[in-house]
Amino acid sequence: MIGSDEQQEESPVIYYFIEDGSHDIFCSSLTKMIQVIAECYETGAYYITEEVVQQRLFLGEDEVKVAQVLSKYNPELLDTTLKELQQVEKELSYRKLVSITYRLMWYKDSRTVEPLIDLLQVSESDKKSVDDIFQIQALAACILGRINHTRAVEPLIDVLDSQFRVTRWNAAESLGNLRDSKAVEPLIKALQDSDESTQNKAAFSLLKLNAVDALIEVLKSDMPDVRLKTVRTLGLIKSYLKESCSQDVVNQVIEAISTLNEDPLRSIREAVQNSLNELRL
């Protein structure tokens, strides 16, 4: 949508998200939006996926290429975003961080990483309410996973122990997006988290990291919940990794999971059979 009926060429293009009613500035003008879209198609940043559902084709995007094109045509908007992020740091304002979230994700500028890490590490001593701290930390953890900069790996690992469960599960998911092997052991530990959503995010991130050997070792855990989660996760490896998952790896996983066929817990034995069925399809 265009911000103003008058002088539309100079008005920012506002992107509205139907899911939650939020919005953000996509491009600084209609002309620049047209240029962005054209170059995204020309460079392959936008492409038609091979997936066909009900005779419909879908548009895919290379997020890194899209970010480069957006930055090229909207340098002034990026500068504005950096200034707004500085203001967020100063005021510790969750609302202001929300207002620039999508721009931070779209532009993926490395200059935003350190300020976001500072927000990730904000503490109660900063004279903000617990709710404010939780919301800021959780959102910063989410954004860092989309900017795709390895500088964020260690800080995200650190907050896997956060007292706030949403921060923990956002950190677990973001570590999978960053695809750094340093995250494997911390994510294995996160499979023991008291929060099921964090366990699930950690499990899927381990799949993204292709941490098959590490997951197989976890099958030996003394904790039934961890064994159960790991069996289910390994059962998804073929469908999740698709072409990058060789038959040798599938056979390795089948052999490992089969060792729990006689597990004392019925739920685990059932999970083993379900996973084996998935892997043998």
Cα-based radius of gyration, to the nearest Å = 22 Å
Please give the largest β-sheet: 2 strands, antiparallel
Question: How far is the first residue's CA from the last residue's CA?
Answer: 46 Å
Tell me, rounded to a whole number, the average pLDDT. Answer: 90
Strands, total number: 4
- Biggest sheet: strand arrangement: 1-2
Number of folding domains?
3
Task: Return the CATH architecture of the largest domain.
Answer: Alpha Horseshoe
CATH topology of the largest domain: Leucine-rich Repeat Variant
Helicity range of the residues? 55-70%
Supply the number of helical segments.
15
CATH superfamily of the largest domain: Leucine-rich Repeat Variant
Q: Could you say which overall geometry the principal axes of the C-alpha atoms support? A: globular
Regions with little confidence, pLDDT below 50 for 5+ residues: none
Query: What structural category arises from helix and sheet content?
Result: mainly alpha
Q: Tell me the name of the CATH class of the largest domain.
A: Mainly Alpha
List SSEs in N-to-C order: EEHEEHHHHHHHHHHHHHH
Strand content: 5-15%
Protein name: PBS lyase HEAT-like repeat protein
Keywords: Antenna complex, Lyase, Phycobilisome
GO molecular function: lyase activity; oxidoreductase activity
Family: Belongs to the CpcE/RpcE/PecE family.
